[in-house]
Amino acid sequence: MVRFILNDRLVQTSAPKGLVLLEFIRDVACLSGTKEACREGECGACTVLVGTRQPQGTISYKACASCLLPIGNVDGCHVVTVEGLSGEQLTLVQRLIVEHSASQCGFCTPGIALSLTGFALESPSLSYENALNALDGNICRCTGYVSIRNAANALCQQLARLDKAAPRTEALIAAGVVPEYFRAMPERLAKLDLEPETPAKDAVLVAGGTDLFVQKPEKLLESDLCFLSKREDLNYIREDGGFLRVGGAVTIEELRRSETAKKFFPALEWDFLLHSSAILRNRATLAGNIVNASPIGDASIILLALGARLQITAEDGKKREVPLDAFYLGYKKTVLSCGDLVTEIAIPLPKPGMRYNFEKVSNRKTLDIAAVNSALRLTLDKGGKVSGLRISAGGVGPVPLLLQGMEKFHGRKADAAMAKDLAKAACEAAKPIDDIRGSAEYKKLLLGQLMLAHFKALSISGDP
Ligand SMILES: Cc1cc2nc3c(=O)[nH]c(=O)nc-3n(C[C@H](O)[C@H](O)[C@H](O)COP(=O)(O)OP(=O)(O)OC[C@H]3O[C@@H](n4cnc5c(N)ncnc54)[C@H](O)[C@@H]3O)c2cc1C
Ligand code: FES
Ligand code: FES
User: Fold this and answer.
1) 214 vs 10: CA distance, rounded Å
2) CA 142, CA 114: separation in Å to the nearest integer?
């Protein structure tokens, strides 16, 4: 039995836990405001808010693509659709969408209203930039983005007047952004009588589900599933013993926004903005990105260069540690055995003289997977000579690659001449194939150019 609150109504259902929320909302709850379009997380028409109870008793609301979200993942949560936003009157977000003519056919509009409401509820800073980032997964085909941006900008101006002393939800109720029934939600969620998870031995591990529910939604409807988002013990980001330790259920967006992560790796806040879109990053996990073993997985590429290690826990509870560069065995093959769980990703903290950069080339800036991506971690000694170099490359082989033989650059000055030699070495190491994202020749050239881009980003002239 799955229990959650849909808008202000309690839902108890024995529907399969793998049924996607979009289908439940439209076909079982008969709420048609949430739209179905791509069903692959690409358009944002199905965006809803998912509120999860936090240990301190508050609720954290995230905008999510409901087409890739199994209902088992919202057990114990508050789900908000467009029907749950307004009563007699439009909310502030909806009114601003109308006033700025930010809707024509309206198919995308519920998703946009929910993404902006999620931004108002959750964003640490209510800046216009963050409002636009919150909309990066919402595609509109007929209004034109200028009027949508104008509505977002007007929202930010109104939110600047919020009572900062009041809890955010209270201030947003007073400003007409969310309805009054949100106030009682922490208490109502606390009272939900949830069943303990007892997954079968061979249950499919579901993290965010953003990969699984694109690949095989029908099969998952029939399967036993184990929802990792319920494992509070896997939800942490902390510094310990020279590592940034990230639990196996942490989402990409949680890591992106983590103050602890920003302290050591400030660039990740921007680099992970290039991963999918807000409505997916709010569910997609770092571990899911690693385990799906895509040769162009952005997190895998970043973590390879940073020298990450995985803690893997077997079914019998035995733990082992595997460096990420030894994790991939071949196309979509990893060292994981049946029942193995990635419980932690440990990233060595930067040492003095260490610099890092990530580059991604894709057809669109956001919401697109890479043609080729690469990350570099360069360590310079006190004399400015190279003492360490790790470079990863995606899209140029069957697995996310760590380029070998980089020791030959140790002792060299990191300058334009080195960038040129590095570009040549990277081209030689790459073994891409022709595919929909480009020819093998193009991808080789691209990887070479990315070496120059790394040097340029780190203010080492890449122009030989
Ligand atoms: C529209 C769209 C855009 C995307 N854009 C990008 C992009 O820009 N960059 C990118 O890299 N990827 C992208 N992806 C791919 C995908 O979202 C990511 O790879 C994501 O990080 C997967 O994480 P998840 O938690 O959703 O994994 P899930 O789908 O839940 O799981 C993926 C696999 O990992 C296994 N698994 C998950 N967690 C664990 C664990 N802790 N231990 C053992 N096994 C585990 C699951 O059993 C499953 O086999 C995109 C996907 C979509 C649909
Ligand atoms: S229907 Fe397009 S993102 Fe869900
Ligand atoms: S208003 Fe038609 S798709 Fe956005």
Assistant:
1) 28
2) 19
Give the number of the atom of ligand 1 that is nearest the alpha carbon of residue 298. 11
Residue 206 alpha carbon, nearest atom of ligand 1: 30
Residues 6+ apart with CB under 8 A from 76: 3, 4, 52, 53, 189, 192, 194
pTM listed for this prediction: 0.96
pLDDT of residue 463: 47
pLDDT (tens digit, 9 = 90+) per residue, 104-143?
Answer: 999 999 999 999 999 999 999 999 999 999 999 999 999 9
The span from the CA of 415 to the CA of 29, in Å, is: 62
Backbone angles phi, psi at 273, to 5 degrees: -65, -20
pLDDT in tens, 427-459: 888 888 888 778 888 889 999 999 999 999 998
Best residue for ligand 2 mutational test, from 38, 139, 282 (most atoms within 8 Å of Cβ): 38
* Rounded Cα–Cα distance for residues 242 and 256 (Å): 20
25: three-class secondary structure by DSSP: helix
Is any ligand 3 atom within 6 A of the Cβ of residue 142?
A: yes
Ligand index nearest the alpha carbon of residue 45: 2
CA of 45 from ligand 3 middle (Å) equals 9
Domains of the chain: 2-84+182-230 (3.10.20.30), 92-178 (1.10.150.120), 232-457 (3.30.465.10)
Per residue in 182-210, pLDDT (tens digit) is: 999 999 999 998 888 777 888 999 999 99
Strands (DSSP E) contained in 102-212 are 204-206
CA distance 271 to 36: 29
336-394 pLDDT tens trace: 999 999 999 999 999 999 999 999 998 877 778 888 999 999 999 999 899 999 999 99
Yes or no: say if 268 and 367 are a contact pair by the CB < 8 Å rule: no
Please choose from 24, 67, 214 the residue to mutate so as to test ligand 2's pocket, defined by most ligand atoms within 8 A of CB.
Answer: 67
Give the tokens for residue 187: 């208490």
Give CA angle at 251 (249, 254), nearest 5°.
Answer: 120
Distance CA 407, CA 192 (A): 57
Atom of ligand 3 nearest to the CA of 104: 1
